[in-house]
Amino acid sequence: MKKLVGAGEILVEIMAERIGQSFLEPGPLLGPYPSGAPAIFIGQAAALSQPAGLIGAVGDDDFGRLNIERLRTLGADVSAIAVHKGHATGTAFVTYRADASRHFVFNIRNSAAGLIETNAAAINLLAGADHVHVMGSSLFSDRAIAVALSAIETVKAKGGTVSFDPNIRREIMQASGMRAALDQVLAQADIFLPSGEELFLFSSARDEKGAVEELLARGLSCIVLKKGAAGAVYHDRHGAVASSGYAVDEVDPTGAGDCFGAAFVSFWLRGAAPAEALRIANACGALAVTRKGPMEGIFPLEAVEAFVATGNTR
Ligand code: ATP
Ligand code: MG
């Protein structure tokens, strides 16, 4: 089976317990939960039995140990996760507003996560990689951008493939060089996994069809547009395949896009037809939102297949 590698932020997430709760005053918090978009992605891929590993960095603290232990338990290759003494693991504090929007206080660049580098362990992991996945949120500093771009270069040089999820968080969009790096990664991607409005960040077209045509003409092999509870649509130069979402009670939306992407890419790497890859991906996205915490809704392939068999789509 093909090996998938991710690179980027490893965090713990700590969330406000109540909707509408503010960080301007004390309140109940839940967590720490293992998190970080590329970590969620690699964890879900590993749970689906795809060989998968992550390049990243944590502190020599319980937050770091929690993350490494979770990824290892899910079956991921954690050999390229560096542990830095004297630096704390990255964090994300999140509040949920009544309008369903989420607001984050991130500590990524100045945490151990910011020390990400292409060290000997990373080079070793990349030597066995067939595919690299990049999250836009992982392009948070010049150093992190350099790691992502060198991973792409290494994997592409031996005929491998690249997937890209812009995963825009407005709290980190201002990072210097991020916008240019997003464009650079997109230019080398085979699979593009935007969600909602992210489709329009990279094209001049104002409607979905126009944006898809423009992006496919730039060399992408396929675009998979995530649409939350409504499911997702796959596009390639032969046409489109739509797949409805599953009906579930949403408890916590964080992580759905990452679990969806991991499942789609894992099945694409196995040569599955788009409709089949979408079915599994929609199921993983739906299961992800049924649990509080971004990695708590990651399930192994057998459980995902059993869920798909219920056929409980919208
Ligand atoms: P994230 O917030 O993790 O970045 P995203 O914006 O990238 O998520 P979404 O479109 O919100 O991506 O969700 C990804 C996929 O997860 C959807 O395409 C769908 O398959 C599934 N999903 C998300 N929310 C729900 C829901 N409420 N009910 C069922 N499925 C859902
Ligand atoms: Mg996303």
TrEMBL record:
Pfam family, one: PfkB
Natural source organism: Mesorhizobium ventifaucium
UniProt name for this protein: Sugar kinase
GO-annotated molecular function: kinase activity
KW Kinase (keyword) present: yes
InterPro entries: Carboh/pur_kinase_PfkB_CS (IPR002173), PfkB_Carbo_kinase (IPR050306), PfkB_dom (IPR011611), Ribokinase-like (IPR029056)
Segments traversing the membrane: none
Similarity remark: Belongs to the carbohydrate kinase PfkB family.
Lineage per the UniProt record: Bacteria, Pseudomonadati, Pseudomonadota, Alphaproteobacteria, Hyphomicrobiales
